[in-house]
Amino acid sequence: MTGRIPLLVGGADDVRTQMILVAAHAAEVDVKTEAPKSAAAPELQFSDKKITYTGAILRFFGRFHESSEVYGSSFYESAEVDSWLDWALMELAEPPVRLEQAAQTLEKHLEQRVFLVGQRLTLADIAASLPLQRFQQQGLVQLGRATKRWLGTCLATEAACSVLSSAPPKGKAAAAATAAPSVAPVAAVAGATPMSSTPLLDRYSSCVGGRTEIKRIMLADGDGKSMVGQKVSVCGWVKTAREVVIDSGAKGFDSLKGKCSTGASMKCTGEVVASPGGKQAVEILVKDAGSEVVLFGGVDAKEYPLAKKGHSHEYLRSIAHLRPRSNLIGSVARVRAALAQATHEFFRSNNFLYVHTPLITAADCEGAGEMFQVTTMMAEAEKDGKPLPMANGKFDYTKDFFQKPAFLTVSGQLSVENYCCSLSKVYTFGPTFRAENSHTSRHLAEFWMIEPELAFADIVDDMNCAEDYLKYCVRYAMEHNRQDLEFFDDKIEKGLVKRLENLLAEPFARVTYTEAIDILLKESPTAKFQVPVEWGMDLGSEHERHLAEKVFKKPTIVYNYPKDIKAFYMRLNEDNKTVAAMDVLAPAIGEVIGGSQREERLDVLDRRITEMGLEPKDYWWYRDLRRFGSVPHSGFGLGFERLIMLTTGVENIRDVIPYPRYPGHAEF
Predict the structure, then answer these.
(1) pTM score, two decimals?
(2) How far, in Å, CA of 276 to CA of 263, rounded?
(3) Which residues form the Aminoacyl-transfer RNA synthetases class-II family profile domain (predicted)?
(4) Nearest to 88 by CA among 109, 77, 102
(5) pLDDT surpasses 60 at 431
């Protein structure tokens, strides 16, 4: 070959070729490809030399750019990558010999990790995930929850998607008949286990002499049976589940009398034994020598607000400082944390940059004026016993802290757009505020928003990203929080798990606003909507849910809305009546995502700002983006609490946020 771009000679359906191409993409190295003339291991060719071993080719791309972190971000991480790379090329080679043992090694290592090494995709992940996916598709291996989550994360990265989306499908029989044996590097050692494993003990529990989390025991092999006979120490608060059994002869038992009711905190040291009950496989027996119980904090059962009986969701809100101890809020908290983690993993794996946008702003993103004002004038006037400063019959904001009207942000979008128009793909994830005097189960005064912005992207790209993100989060929860979702399925929404599986099963429906109105008009006689349907209206929850639940029976994206019901920054379509806006509607929820292609034409933007009754001068910095190197760009916003409601089936938004803020309620 000639030129400086290397040529990769390898079969498109060869997993080794796919590994190399993903590594090249992740390392941002251009490579040409050519099919081999005969079955052989992939080979990287240059004008005067060639590299023949898969491991060597992967390392070549890993070292191509000094700034690349695909080989690890430190000397130690690079050593870890080498260890896992050698292990994967040996243990996951075709035909697999110790596949079940390899899967167990990965599951143990990934239990509390996102990637095999460090905080991002490396050669280690690439070398292990692609062959493992092939074996899973062939039905040769069953993967644990942690490994499934990791595999989904790896395959969702931009590097993997760009290669695998164009790779030809390969069936089970075909794979067995044509797969060539992998070439393992000389340094690989048969049966070797890579560096590091997750310790059983919580490393930050020296205060109590070390402890093991109960969930770690329950998630061990055989639902904990593999730990039978081991001595462990657990700490926590007393509930009604039979996970720890304390014998009356155990050391420290007398200290529990009259104090060990629901809510008490203690440490129990005992032996893991098989449980005689049917609800769980094992329990901890505190009985013999070496076993003991230590009471940290007792509880008077008569005063404890969370008795064993069930409590209404409304009552739990009144004791928000204790409600995390309830099964409902505990499960919500775990799913909320998982979805936040999934959010960052999705955007980071797709090369988005996380930007912190300000909470205090002088701009009204939505143009609705429902904002909380930030001022120090009232406190100063009250302190000095003087009236508020006035000028021409209005408050004199030049005397205020910011010397102009300032508010809590309703959206980080306008701020994050600035970074989008410099750094290409960005997102913000933080609290936002709306001063809406609303008492519905769907609105809060303070809530969290995820808002990505994509440069060089139109409304179609925006819809694709929104669908991919939503599916990624739901899949993450399904794999990482299955027990919590089964609890919600049993106690909150029957059929929840099936609904989530359906969400992942096929592409979302897509329909224009005008088409949606036509459908709703035809459905009106039988649907009997409370609000009559007409073109130009803002779709209500009943209309949104009807489209998603009754018409399409799956998540539905409605796009190209009338300009008069949308914000000034949304791109005006050629018809001058609609804007390139879209909403993602989900069954049981309604709108969960709203987004648009942004208006990149300065003259049109100015006209839209004026039409909305806003002052162009207040958005001078936003207008500058259109004056200096304007580009097509798009973005969307997702209310994080709406995502949690969709994933858990919880119907009231006040129950999916730790401390809900709504009219008349700002306690805790």
Answers:
(1) 0.71
(2) 25
(3) 334-658
(4) 102
(5) yes
